[in-house]
Amino acid sequence: MTQQGGQAGGRVLTRSEATAHGGRGGYIETPDHHLGVKFSVPQEIGGDGGVGTNPEQLFAAAYAASFQSAVGMVARRDGISFGTSQVTGVVGLRREDDSDPSYHLDVELQISLPGLSREEAGRMVQEARALCPYSRALGESAGVRLTVVEGETAG
Asked: What is the model's pLDDT at position 67?
């Protein structure tokens, strides 16, 4: 097996595995069978728009869940309480221009922290960004937008 890239030091606490079969038009599965998902290619990028999901939906869900956990860590650490938080991940594909064949991720998290001022919510969101492993993996180069939204629901 050939590996590219490096891993940071430290002890791995948990590891998950999923295998893709057939790319964007195929399916994925995990060895423990907890996840098995059929993919279909969205019409916007030349597919049939069938009944399956796509990698961007899975990424949006995973990033939203991880970020919401990071917000909870900040709240517990600082002794802050608020209503029921919600994080909605919005992930798209974009191209820089029509001559560029490669896709780039367009990522936004919409975060609702009811009961907090916009300033306090913004501070917590920035601190959560520093704790969330997805945010840290994406870094600043991915251009992730973190948007604090009003009310009980985001999206």
From this structure: 98
